[in-house]
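Chain particulars:
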Amino acid sequence: MTGDDKQEQHFLSRELRGVNRLKQDKITPYRKPLDATPRQRLLDDQRVMRELLEQSDEITSFESGDELKFLKKGYPGRVLKKLRRGDYAIRDELDLHGMVVSEAKFETHQFINDCAREGVHAVRIVHGKGRHSAGRTPVLKNMLLGWLSRNQYVIAVCSAPANDGGSGAVYILLGK
C-alpha cells in the first residue's frame, strides 16, 4: 500500500467507527403464488363441452341387428378390417347401459378423450341393443356413431363380433 492508500484507509476507518454492519441488505419481493391448475387442459375440456352442447344430435336410424361402421377420411380400408377382425387389443371399455342420452353423450366423449390422452388405442363401448328402451329401439346405438365420427381422436368404429357384444357394442380405434 502506498502512503495515500494508508491515509484513505485510516480516514475511512475513523469515519465508520461505531457503524454496525447490517446482516441482510436485501428485501425479498412479494410474488403471487403460481396457480397449479393446468389451464390449457381446463380450456380444452371447456371447448369440448361447448362443442358437444352446440352440436345437433343427428339420429341415424339403425335396427337392433344392424352393423355400425365408420372410417375417418384419409385412412385405408384395411384399418377398419383389422379393427373388425380384432387385430387391435382392446385396452378399455365403457358400458352405457341404463344411461339417458345426455349422460351417455358426456360419458362417451369423456371416455374417448381420456383414453386418447393416456395413449390407449383400441376400446370398446357397450351401447346395448335397445331391448329395454321405449319402443324397443336402440336409442344410444342410433346416436353413438354420430358422436364418435365427430370426435377428433376417433379413426375407426365397427360393431363388435358376436362373442364380444355383437350389434350391442362397438370397437373404436383411437389416434392422437
